[in-house]
Amino acid sequence: MELTYHLEPKADESPLGYYRRLASANDFRNWREFASLAGTSTSRTGLLSRPEHIAATYNLPTAWTASITQREESLKALRSLHRGHHDVVCPHCLGEDMYLRTGWEHCYVTACPTHRTVLVERCPACDSFLSINRERIEQCDCGQDLALIPTATATPVQLWLSARLMAVRGAPMSQLPDLADASPADVAELVRTLCLYFDPVAPAPRRNAASPGSVSEAVEFLAPLETLLVDWPAAYEQHVRSRIAAGPGNARTLKALLGPWFRHLLTVASAGSLKAFLSPVIRIASTEFDGVIGMEDEGHWDDLRYVRLKDAAKHGHMTVPTLKRAIAARQIEHRSRRFGTKGKVFEVLREDLERIVEARSGWVTEAEACRSLGVSPKVLGNMAAAGLVEADYDWVKDVLKGGPFRTRAIEDVRATLMANQAESPTTGELIAFADLTSRRLGDNTAIQALMRAIRAGEVRAQGPAEDVGQLQYKLADVRRFFGTPLLEAGLSVSQLAKLTGWKHECIDHWIERGLLHSFSIVLRGQPCRVVMPAQLLEFNRTYMPLADLAKLAGGRSSLLAKRLAPVGVIPGRATADGAQRGALVKLTDVAALAVAAANAGRLELRDGRAGRPMPSRRCTPREGN
């Protein structure tokens, strides 16, 4: 079926009002005939629940009908607050543009924020409600032109509430609370609570009292808002004080004192700009009510001067006994409040609590410190022992500390170690900072000495890393701090002296003069020198102790030293009596001396073929030479 006029829906047009305007423009008797000819139910639900069918039947764009159905779903969400059994209009709006607004169907909307007038729901000519089945939107069934109906001026509170529910921007707010960021549903729930439980001594209202069916009933139901908001916020605060004074004298909690009015207010006004209605309640009750406020939610703490001990401990991530020790040490002010029949509950001053929480934030737990540095607790413990980070392992007794490690120290050592990097990284065997453990390297004292050297920049990382634990260091630079691995691979001076029979002071003398190479390590906090097998082999290939040579020759080292003086003897360490210990001769000199003696004919040679000694002979110059 083709319509004569295809009308696009307005941005804020009522869903049913759109089809009524479309039916009227195309000479249908009413919207029910429009629905019947489309083959749908003649109910509002039947017409608005089939957007594709209506679009196909009347050749309308599907986007139009789909948007209308979507608006209808939002109206259904109003449930009992939806006014749909008769029309409510603003004559001035109809005179400007003839269509029904969606906001007029909310039962708490009683005024037009644009024209500042009360909405009209009855025809002044026939004194009947404006039927939703009339043929033309702009006329009553009696023929009265609705655009010409006289109107009454709305109050500021009516305009304020209607503007919030209709989401009208730029409406006059005067001195009333600004709820621009609150949703219409939340505003409606707040209004329902304020008006339904306005009288603290009245009996419980009936369930449908908050769903007025007409504008006149809505004005009557919303009348308490005129009292609460006429002088905002002084009138509202006075109302709160009167409710506190009218509450039962044996009430020990604020919920018991203020009843369902406060419990509903907690639900709807706990966030956003709606807190303007809850904050005065908490603030006034904290000074005028000698009971437990019971505001466990930290979002309300801005309105409290004192908070319960249990909630304060939870907020500060500490135990109740810790907070009690702070109270005993007079680090935080507290007071007691009535609770139950004869009990008491302790509350602490919120300002002192926030000061403690801020101080505790400067300290972190072991797990947080390890996660920040990328190391294990064992490595972190050595860092603390080495003085790289500040630690207090008795921190539990101090309420101002939230963990054993100072946050600033963790950040500083992280920045320092990450910055201490070699200018030109080298390749070779590396070890990560996270692997500096006693299980792998032995002595914790040496580990701590290495860590101090790393912080001082004496040992630098070979390239960047994501955290401290992944920093890589040359194993050759690290080994000089760790004695156990080197000691297992080599010999200490004492072990070398016991194995070879050399004097300890002789070995020290050779090492000091650079004749015998060694590694300097730290073992159990004491310096120690280790000679590796390769270094000992190099020494034995180059030198021979004079005492060993004399022993092989069956003589005394002092006499041998005089006889070998022409060859050259490396002097040893002088003793108090003028003697020397640890004199050396070079094996090259001994070999040269042996060759010279052989050439001089003074050595006995063996016949290699017979295996018998051959008679020695002197080499004489040939005649004629």
Descriptive account of the structure:
This protein is mainly alpha-helical and 625 residues long. Among the domains are: 76 residues, no CATH class; 119 residues, no CATH class; 144 residues, no CATH class. The protein has 29 helices and 16 strands. The strands form seven sheets. Strands 3-5-4 form a three-stranded antiparallel β-sheet. A three-stranded antiparallel β-sheet has the order 10-12-11. The longest helix has 15 residues. It is elongated, with a radius of gyration of 50 Å. It holds the Pfam family TniQ. This is TniQ domain-containing protein. It comes from Roseateles terrae.
Q: Can you give me a brief rundown of this structure?
A:
The protein is mainly alpha-helical and 625 residues long.
Q: What percent of residues adopt helix (DSSP H or I)?
A: 40-55%
The count of helical stretches stands at 29
CA-based gyration radius? 50 Å
> Average pLDDT, to the nearest integer?
84
N- and C-termini, Cα separation: 146 Å
Q: Identify low-pLDDT runs.
A: 603-611, 616-625
| Strand residue content | 5-15%
Briefly note the structural class of the backbone. Answer: mainly alpha
Task: Identify the strand order in the major beta sheet.
Answer: 3-5-4
Number of strands: 16
Describe the largest sheet.
Answer: 3 strands, antiparallel
